[in-house]
Amino acid sequence: MAGKKQFDMDTVLDAAMIQFWRSGYADTSLDDLSRATGLNRSSIYSSLGDKDALFLRCLDRYATRYGGKFDAALSCAAEDPVAAVRAFFDVTLGRIADPAVPDGCLMAQSVMASPALSPSVAERAKELFGLQRPRLRTALKAGGMSDENAEDFAVHVAAVNQSLAVMGRAGSSPEQLRAIVGVTVDALVRALGR
C-alpha cells in the first residue's frame, strides 16, 4: 500500500524491550521508544498500542525468550539435577556477559518498579517474575528431591539467580558471580547426597 511504512515487528519489539530494560518503565518516554524503534509516536500507538500495552508485550517477549532458555537448561534435571541447575545459572551468566543486552534483569527491575506501573502491568510483571520458582521446583522434584526440599531449593536458587542480575549490574566480576553459583551448586550436591 503506497505511503504505508513497513517494519519488522520482531525488530521493533526487540528495540523497545532493550529500551525498557536499559532505562526502566518510568524513565522510558515515548520519544525514547520512537528513537529506539525508528517509529514515530503515531505509528507506535497505531501498531503497538499505548506505553503500557507495549511494555506488556516486551515483558512477555523477555519472559518467553529467557523462559525457553531456562526450560531447556532444566530439561536434563531427571538425569542430572546438578548439571541442570548449573545450566540454569549459565543462562543468566550468559545474559549478564552479553554485550548486546543491558545489565540486570528486565523482570526484576520491573517488579521493583511496581509502584510506578499501572496495577495490571505490575500484576503481570509479578506473575512473570514468579515463574522461576515453580520451574525450578518441578525440575528438582524430577531430580529426586522431596517436595519440601525442592520448594526450599527452588526459592533459594531463584533468589540467587535474581541476585546475580543485580550484582552484575552493580559491577561484580564474572569470577565473583561464578563463585556465588558455586556455593549454591555445592549446597545442592550436599542436599542430594551426591
Explain the overall architecture.
The protein is mainly α. The chain has helices spanning 9-23, 30-37, 41-48, 51-74, 81-97, 106-112, 119-129, 132-142, 147-169, 174-192. It is elongated, with a radius of gyration of 19 Å. The mean pLDDT is 93.
Q: What is the percent of helical residues?
A: over 70%
Question: What is the number of helices?
Answer: 10
Q: Can you give the mean pLDDT?
A: 93
Terminal CA distance: 64 Å
- The sequence of SSEs as H and E is HHHHHHHHHH
Uncertain regions spanning at least 5 consecutive residues: none
In terms of topology, how is this protein built?
Elements (H helix, E strand, L loop, with lengths): L8 H15 L6 H8 L3 H8 L2 H24 L6 H17 L8 H7 L6 H11 L2 H11 L4 H23 L4 H19 L2
Helix pairs in contact: 1-2, 1-4, 4-5, 4-7, 4-8, 5-9, 5-10, 6-7, 8-9, 9-10
Quick structural summary:
The chain is mostly helical and 194 residues long. 74% of the residues lie in helices and 0% in strands.
Q: What are the main properties of this structure?
A:
single chain, 10 helices
